[in-house]
């Protein structure tokens, strides 16, 4: 197998930049790839570097999602579980990784607090009131357990 020295050099340069970005803040694979492409690295180089970093567990979309969810919850910027999943999807995180992260972060107390905050801020229009509040909350991604705990109290 003959290695292309220019490809190898480009990969090393791209990896060095990627590691600096990762050292500053957790990255997700799609955003990191975009950042490397903006620095004019060839897509084959970007793909090779991102793949290598994923293999080394230096880049992990589920870990990124967990950190991102925790930051939104701490800043009280997350209206509902469904909003969190949707926002992660817009950041290029696949549904499986998003759900895994959400299930890890959203313990029963955290979800209950989020539900209370959602209800305090919710402005139910006449259209939304046509449905039961429980059904609306279920569509917002709150678990049956959290809803049972709230409505049984």
Radius of gyration: 20 Å
Please give the count of helices. Answer: 10
Order of SSEs: HHHHHHHHHH
How big a fraction of the residues is strand?
under 5%
Dominant shape: elongated
Average the pLDDT over all residues and give the rounded result.
92
Unreliable residue stretches: none
Task: Please indicate the count of domains.
Answer: 2
Task: Briefly note the structural class of the backbone.
Answer: mainly alpha
Helix content: over 70%
Largest sheet: none
Q: How many beta-strand segments?
A: 0
N-to-C span: 68 Å
List key phrases describing it:
single chain; 153 residues; mainly alpha; Arc Repressor Mutant, subunit A; 2 domains; 10 helices; 0% strand
Give the SSE map.
Blueprint: H1 5-24, H2 29-38, H3 43-55, H4 61-74, H5 81-90, H6 95-105, H7 108-121, H8 126-129, H9 133-139, H10 144-152
Helix pairs in contact: 1-3, 2-3, 4-6, 5-6, 7-10
Task: Explain this structure.
The chain has 153 residues and is an all-alpha fold. It folds into two domains: 5-59, Arc Repressor Mutant, subunit A (Orthogonal Bundle), CATH 1.10.10; 62-152. The chain contains ten helices and no strands. The chain has helices at residues 5-24, 29-38, 43-55, 61-74, 81-90, 95-105, 108-121, 126-129, 133-139, 144-152. Helix 1 crosses helix 3 (43-55) and helix 7 (108-121) packs across helix 10 (144-152). The longest helix is centred in the first third of the chain and has 20 residues, at 5-24. The protein starts with a helix and ends with a helix. 23% of the residues are buried.
């Amino acid at each position: 197998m003959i290695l292309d020295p220019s490809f190898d050099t480009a990969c090393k340069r791209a990896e060095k930049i990627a590691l600096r970005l990762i050292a500053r803040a957790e990255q997700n694979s799609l955003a990191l790839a975009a950042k490397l492409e903006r620095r004019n690295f060839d897509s084959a180089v970007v793909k090779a570097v991102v793949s290598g970093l994923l293999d080394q567990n230096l880049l992990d979309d589920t870990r990124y999602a967990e950190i991102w969810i925790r930051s939104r919850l701490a800043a009280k910027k997350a209206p509902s579980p469904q909003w969190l999943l949707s926002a992660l999807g817009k950041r290029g995180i696949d549904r499986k990784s998003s759900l895994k992260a959400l299930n890890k972060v959203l313990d029963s107390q955290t979800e209950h607090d989020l539900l209370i905050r959602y209800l305090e801020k919710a402005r139910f229009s006449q259209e939304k009131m046509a449905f039961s509040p429980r059904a609306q909350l279920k569509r917002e991604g709150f678990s049956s357990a959290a809803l049972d705990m709230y409505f049984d109290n």
